[in-house]
User: Which sequence fits this backbone?
């Protein structure tokens, strides 16, 4: 079916081209089937043979009508206006003959050929800048583009990523990942289950639809903590257009819909363990371990700056404990002004850390942007969820390296106790902030005074 769709798309492209050449007084946008054909055609590898062999097929002929009928076999309807468009592709809503509503992700024509030219141009320009300014340290941009762009241009790889993350996070019932229709997909066109909702940074949408903003922010943090610390397979493009929210009419639960799975970062085991230990140290305000694991991740003497970049907090807040107090307006101003002042050091740091860290830094920034829009900047609860994931990840790694049954049991017991301590502390925080908790505290206080 996929090959057939590809061939039909090529034929449709040739037919629409003939129409343009043959009748300059008619606007092709007035003819719906040609619009559909042209939209589908962007998914195809339009070969020279197709173009030359069909150049003589006139618009309105029997052959042209045959092409139209073949295109109609694919879709009942195809919306010409894209739901979303980006530099590489755009997405259209369509209905298949069997009634399934699908999202059709279509790669822009010639983007594959153009992308290689763009990378080459970027490499040349950066080399020129490097010659003029020897201290310029951004050549890693080219390396990352060369590695990531081919993966993003292969929509079959995107489909595989979607299925992998859906299976990996299947325990989260609030997560929805569109199903991929493999029989109708190619490297340049991806057909998937159609899902819609409000953007994750649209607080007004959530309030209108009775969606708890804090719950969404908390669940998004759970998803990414699980991906980063436990699985080491990270969706690295969580901008608001790729993360939707919707309340299920049947259950009343709010779902997070994760879209666009073209860009993932796979973390090595050693990197992931160092990153887990570093975040545990940051949450506990253990400066010796912050320094140790920052250095192991390439930060060197710039580890204070590295800690501030990871947490988006001032060095004073990092030393005090990032879960102890919320971000203030003055601290935000301090962070922004310091970012400009320390630009050379930031550049050096980005050049020294492992390449795996670069996409994680981008992911962290996007997630913080969502939190800022929702007014739910990282709370004690989100740090506790991160701690849980770090504990589970480190314990799983330690068990895998141990050959002693006694040692594995010891690790499991320590893990269980640590997780229990976190649950107990979270219960304490909940009681402290609730009316029930205030009543319990007042009652205990009265009992204390009556005893003495």
Assistant:
């Amino acid at each position: 079916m996929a090959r057939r769709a590809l061939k039909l798309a090529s034929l449709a492209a040739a037919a629409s081209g003939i129409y343009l050449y043959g009748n300059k007084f008619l606007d092709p946008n007035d003819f719906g089937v040609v619009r559909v054909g042209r939209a589908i055609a962007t998914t195809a590898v339009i070969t020279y043979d197709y173009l030359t062999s069909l150049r003589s097929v006139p618009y309105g002929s029997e052959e042209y009508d045959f092409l139209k009928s073949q295109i109609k076999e694919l879709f009942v309807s195809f919306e010409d206006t894209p739901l979303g468009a980006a530099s590489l592709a755009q997405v259209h809503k369509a209905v298949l003959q069997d009634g399934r509503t699908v999202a059709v992700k279509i790669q822009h024509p010639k983007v594959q050929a153009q992308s290689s030219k763009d990378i080459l141009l970027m490499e040349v320009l950066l080399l020129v800048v490097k010659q003029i300014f020897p201290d310029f340290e951004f050549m890693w941009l080219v390396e990352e583009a060369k590695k990531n762009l081919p993966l993003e241009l292969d929509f079959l790889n995107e489909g595989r990523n979607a299925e992998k993350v859906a299976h990996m996070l299947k325990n989260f019932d609030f997560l929805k990942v569109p199903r991929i229709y493999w029989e109708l997909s190619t490297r340049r066109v991806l057909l998937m289950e159609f899902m819609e909702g409000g953007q994750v940074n649209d607080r007004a949408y959530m309030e209108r639809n009775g969606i708890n903003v804090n719950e969404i922010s908390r669940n998004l943090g759970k998803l990414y903590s699980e991906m980063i610390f436990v699985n080491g397979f990270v969706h690295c493009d969580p901008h608001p257009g790729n993360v939707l929210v919707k309340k299920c009419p049947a259950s009343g639960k709010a779902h997070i819909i994760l879209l666009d799975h073209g860009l993932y970062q796979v973390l090595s085991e050693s990197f992931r363990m160092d990153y887990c230990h570093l975040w545990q140290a940051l949450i506990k305000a253990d400066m010796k371990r912050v320094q140790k694991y920052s250095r192991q991740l390439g930060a060197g003497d710039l580890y204070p700056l590295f800690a501030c970049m990871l947490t988006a907090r001032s060095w004073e807040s990092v030393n005090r404990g990032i879960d102890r107090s919320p971000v203030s307006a003055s601290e935000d101003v301090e962070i922004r002004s310091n970012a400009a002042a320390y630009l050379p050091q930031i550049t050096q740091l980005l050049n020294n850390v492992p390449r795996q860290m670069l996409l994680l830094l981008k992911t962290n920034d996007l997630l913080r942007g969502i939190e800022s829009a929702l007014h739910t900047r990282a709370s004690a609860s989100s740090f506790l969820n991160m701690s849980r994931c770090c504990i589970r990840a480190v314990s799983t790694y330690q068990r895998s390296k141990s050959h002693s049954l006694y040692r594995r049991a010891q690790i499991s017991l320590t893990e269980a106790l640590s997780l229990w301590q976190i649950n107990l502390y979270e219960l304490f925080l909940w009681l402290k902030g609730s009316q029930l908790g205030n009543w319990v505290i007042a009652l205990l206080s009265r009992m204390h005074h009556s005893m003495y």
